[in-house]
Write a structure and sequence with these properties.
231 residues, elongated, mainly alpha
C-alpha cells in the first residue's frame, strides 16, 4: 500500500514546481505591464473573463517553460549531490566478486543507481521527505531567479526609455520623479524580497539536509548498496 501513494505524492510535487513559479512569473509580467503599459493593463483588468483566461494560460505556459529550463539543476549547490554517487562508486570498488556492471558504467550512472536505490529500498516516508526537500529547493531557486529577472527587466526598461529622451533630456529629468518613482519603488521591494529569500534560503538548506541525511542512510545501510551493485 505505501508504494501506491508515492507516484501521487511525486506528481503533486512536480505539479507545484510548474504552477507556483509559473504564476509567480505571470504576476511579474503583469506587474511590468502595469508599470510601463498602464493603459493596456487597465483594459485587461476591465475585462475579468479575458484577464483570467490570459493569466491562467500564461501561468501554465511560463511554468512549463521554467520547468524545461530547469535552472535549479544548473546551480553549484545542486552538484553537492555528487557525494551520493561517490559513495556508490566506493562500494562498487569494494565488491568482493566485482560489480555487476563495469566500473566505468557505474561511475557514469552513479546518480541513477542512487535514484534506483531510493525508489526500491528507501522507506516511503524518508523517500517522500527527499522529494519534498528537493521540491522546496527548486521552488526557492526558481522564485529567486524570477525575482532578479523581474528587477533586471524593470531597470532595463527604465534605462531604455531614458535613452530615448536625448533631445529632451532636461524634460525627462524633470518628469523622472513622477514617471519612474513607481518602477524604482517596486524594484526596491523586489530587491528586498530577493535579499530575504537569499538570507533565509530554506531551499538550499533543505537540499543540503536531504543530501546529508541520505548519505548517512546509505552508510548505515551499505548492504543495500552492495546488493544493488555487487555480484
Amino acid at each position: 500500500m505505501p508504494e501506491t501513494g508515492l507516484p501521487v505524492q511525486l506528481t503533486t510535487y512536480e505539479f507545484l514546481r510548474i504552477l507556483m513559479p509559473g504564476y509567480y512569473a505571470a504576476a511579474s509580467v503583469m506587474l511590468h505591464l502595469w508599470l510601463f503599459e498602464n493603459d493596456l493593463a487597465i483594459r485587461l483588468a476591465g475585462n475579468p473573463a479575458l484577464f483570467t483566461m490570459i493569466f491562467v494560460f500564461a501561468g501554465f505556459f511560463l511554468g512549463f517553460l521554467i520547468y524545461a529550463v530547469d535552472w535549479p539543476s544548473r546551480r553549484a549547490v545542486f552538484e553537492e549531490r555528487k557525494v551520493l554517487g561517490d559513495f556508490i562508486i566506493e562500494r562498487a570498488k569494494a565488491c568482493a566478486l566485482g560489480p555487476k556492471l563495469p566500473l566505468d558504467e557505474i561511475k557514469r550512472y552513479s546518480n541513477f543507481v542512487y535514484w534506483l536505490i531510493l525508489d526500491t529500498d528507501v522507506p516511503p516516508e524518508r523517500r517522500q521527505r527527499v522529494y519534498y526537500f528537493g521540491s522546496i529547493y527548486r521552488l526557492y531557486a526558481d522564485v529567486r531567479a524570477i525575482t532578479i529577472l523581474t528587477i533586471g527587466a524593470i531597470a532595463a526598461t527604465v534605462a531604455f526609455e531614458l535613452l530615448q529622451c536625448d533631445t529632451c533630456r532636461g524634460l525627462c529629468m524633470i518628469q523622472f520623479a513622477s514617471t519612474y518613482i513607481m518602477p524604482i519603488l517596486m524594484s526596491l521591494i523586489l530587491l528586498g524580497v530577493y535579499v530575504v529569500l537569499t538570507i533565509c534560503n530554506k531551499g538550499d538548506k533543505y537540499w543540503r539536509d536531504a543530501i546529508t541525511s541520505q548519505l548517512l542512510w546509505l552508510r548505515l545501510h551499505s548492504d543495500v548498496v552492495d546488493k544493488t551493485v555487487c555480484k
